[in-house]
């Protein structure tokens, strides 16, 4: 099942995507579940969504896509998690996951413009797989980790590289308003039989700039969930962006930055394609 959040007729909603249509489930279930995060937080919310038959059907052209979870309690991003990306940075292989956070305001939905800030032109792409948590937990073991995953989505961890390097902490360069994207939808875990066998590809203006198998991840999904849930409670709707492969613009000669007018796409077969244009602030 593919589930998206969107705006229709000035109202925030959510529903199941089927080809070129999406159900307006929020129009029916909204009094019980105000948003997709609350659907995931309910023990039977996804089952109710899957069984819903009387929701209005919309064309995808009628909706404005929102980030899959517009209001997450937290978005945790993993840096330096693809082995080839670690090599291109010249850094040592980390012993523990490198984590930082993104604010909800720092992300937009599918087909919405990324914003290059006026403070910098060093606007880099980072295509990533995103995990969406469906079941809360602390101290989750690797063996039980996937039981806490609602599904998968795509992420562009758009990075303002000079601001990222102002200090040892990444926060400033990762949180300019509208600099990243999250979508187009959530694909429930039951539709993905072997996530590690899939390939992530990022394209800038149609040219492939990143392409790597998810099996190149240094810290796999169960390890990330175990590590993160040790220090914080993972909640339904929380997002873990698992890191970006090699090929980012900062380590090319000359550097390759996103600029206004560009089109950037992140794709994983079986999940979909997250597409955004770039606008100037």
Overview of this protein structure:
The chain is α+β, with helices and mostly antiparallel strands and 281 residues long. The protein folds into two domains: 2-65, no CATH class; 75-280, Alpha-Beta Complex (Fumarylacetoacetate hydrolase, domain 2). It is 14% helix and 35% strand. It has six helices and 19 strands. The strands form three sheets. Strands 1, 2, 3, 4, 5, 6, 7, 8, 11, 12, 14 and 17 form a twelve-stranded mixed sheet that branches. Strands 9-19-18-15-16 form a five-stranded mixed sheet, with no helix packed on it.
The CATH topology label of the largest domain is: Fumarylacetoacetate hydrolase, domain 2
**In what range is the share of β-strand residues?**
25-35%
Number of helices: 6
Q: Main sheet?
A: 12 strands, mixed
Poorly predicted runs are: none
In helices, the fraction of residues equals 10-25%
**What gross morphology would you assign?**
globular
CATH superfamily of the largest domain: Fumarylacetoacetase-like, C-terminal domain
Structural class assignment: alpha+beta
The SSE string, one letter per element, is EEEHHHEEEHEEEEEEEHEEEHEEE
* Computed CA radius of gyration, to the nearest angstrom: 18 Å
CATH class of the largest domain: Alpha Beta
How many domains, as an integer?
2
């Amino acid at each position: 099942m593919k589930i998206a959040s969107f705006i229709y007729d000035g109202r925030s909603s959510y529903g199941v995507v089927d080809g070129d249509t999406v159900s307006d489930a929020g129009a029916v279930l909204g009094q019980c579940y105000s948003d997709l995060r609350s659907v995931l937080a309910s023990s039977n919310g996804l089952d109710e969504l899957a069984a819903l038959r009387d929701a209005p059907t919309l064309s995808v052209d009628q909706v404005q896509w929102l980030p899959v979870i517009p209001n997450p309690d937290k978005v945790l991003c993993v840096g330096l998690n693809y082995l080839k990306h670690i090599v291109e940075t010249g850094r040592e292989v980390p012993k523990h996951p490198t984590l930082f956070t993104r604010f909800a305001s720092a992300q937009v939905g599918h087909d919405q413009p990324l914003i290059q800030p006026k403070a910098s032109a060093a606007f880099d792409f980072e295509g990533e797989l995103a995990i969406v948590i469906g079941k809360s937990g602390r101290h989750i073991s690797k063996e039980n980790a996937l039981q806490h995953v609602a599904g998968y989505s795509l992420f562009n961890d758009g990075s303002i590289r000079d601001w990222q390097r102002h200090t040892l902490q990444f926060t400033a360069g990762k949180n300019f308003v509208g600099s990243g994207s999250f979508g187009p939808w959530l694909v429930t875990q039951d539709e993905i039989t072997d996530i590690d066998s899939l390939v992530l590809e990022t394209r800038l203006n149609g040219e492939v700039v990143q392409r790597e198998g998810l099996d190149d991840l240094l810290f796999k999904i169960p390890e990330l969930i175990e590590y993160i849930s040790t220090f914080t409670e993972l909640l339904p709707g929380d997002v873990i962006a698992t890191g970006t492969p090699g090929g980012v613009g900062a380590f090319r000669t000359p550097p390759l930055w996103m600029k206004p007018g560009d089109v950037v796409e992140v794709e994983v077969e079986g999940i979909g394609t997250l597409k955004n244009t770039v606008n100037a602030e």
